[in-house]
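explain this.
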Amino acid sequence: MQQQPSTKQYIALAVLLVWAIVVAFVTVQSVTFVRLTAGQIACLLIFVPILTAWCIVHSIAAIQTLTASKPDAGKKEDEQDKPPADEEAQPVESEQKPKAEIEATYRSRAAALLGNAAEDERVTYLNNGAEWACIFFVVWVCDRTPLVTKVMKSPYNPDQFWFLWVALGLLGFVTLKKIKINNPNNHAAPLQRDQTEEWKGWMQIAFLLYHYFQAAPLYNAIRLFIAAYVWMTGFGNFSYYYIRKDFSFTRFCQMMWRLNFMVIFLCAIMENDYMLYYICMLHTLFTVVLVIAMGIKAEQWNYKLGTMTTKFVVLAIITGIIWEVPGVFEIVWAPFRWLVDYHNPARPDDNPLHEWKFRSTLDHWVWIVGMLTAYNFPRGDELLQKLDSLDRRKQIIIKTIVTVACGVVTVLWFQNVYLLNKFEYNSLHPYTSWVPITIYIIMRNLFSVTRHYYLGVFAWLGKLTLETYLLQFHVWMATPGPNGNPKRLLQILPAEYPMMNFVLFSAFYLFLSYRCKAIVDSLKCLVIPNDKDKAKRNIMAIPVVVVALYVVALGITMTAAVPEVAK
């Protein structure tokens, strides 16, 4: 007897058929209705099969579950007159299955259609892939279609801006939490994860409100906050590699996935240059350089003062040559112009390399300061423990001296650097940004009580800094088109309710950011798992798949261009 095709085979055939139809449809659309780019078509070739598979799998699973949950009417009629053999021994069962049991049955059937994956992992991945496609459709609709109204930003209103800051600050203190300590002496180490997430969170709020409300007077502060993010790149990555010693290619690819997976889709779908989202490039560059520097003879050199000092000196020399010697920057980045060029539609005559040179020059030293801080972190923690063990009188004297010294330095920096106009400030920023960052770290951790607590809502937002940074361009504000900066605001309520529009779109924007973070982390486990063999296989396949998709998409765009030339 000939074996019947399985449900999975039917699904695979259906997906392939739909994919072929989509390719043909997109080709026709490209010719007759709207011109799609190769990147957009490549994304469609990814999204449509995923959405099709999701619909098929969940439809079949739902039908099978509903069928299984209904009682067998025919069997009931046949057995209606037959009493059970032991009427008292057999309890009467409910004909209606519990909701939890039906849901479990549904997920198990969906998992079976995808290959009986353990704990329904494949169902989760499929759901995440479909949700990812829907999110980017929403992003495109919000930013690039007239379906959502766009209005110009209002002039900066200090009262409105600082009222929001005070309200968010009060919310932060309402969510005050105590850190978890796993040592017997109840010592809270400085710069714990919750504290750094809190730091990122409140800086991100300032960064976002600065853009939304056009708070131009805070320009210098925002430059400083971006420097603090880059400082954390040096500090966090150095700490990880110094402690974990995991220089595997799998770990490196997982970091690159986290930094760039979402931005790649945004660039393809929204037709933007990578440099529009310049912070991703900053973190990527300094992470790559740090990994290379620390990976060279890690076991022999990273734990000796002399050789580690040599590494820092070499990094500083290379950095100084590239960014401080005229003409070297352009030579070094010439082979990578395809990646770092930015074609600003507002300034078409600018050198496309200008944006990357400007952004990277501002923060080309501070990441090394972050590395140095991480390297000396154990010594700083020991000093804090010694300080906390002193009697109260000595503690007060020492902490007072440190506080006064930090205050004096802060006043000097504020008067001589921060208060300068933006152009003068920018010229000093690369060499001075570490000063207020260091003072903040000292004052945030000098007192034991402040190390033991953090503001929960800011720490939560600090985990979403990348997603909120990227999505602000498209679902919180709006750009005028490819490579445009977000100069407009989205509006769903009448213009008389600007703050209600702000609240509604902020909630929607934060929800999408939260979901994007969860999906990126989930898909990372699928594509680049901790299993090195599977990760290696997938990593080798990614370039092949990307190139194949792009070639097909490029072929479609070229095919669509032929009729236009004929016309």
Observations:
- The longest strand covers residues 149-152.
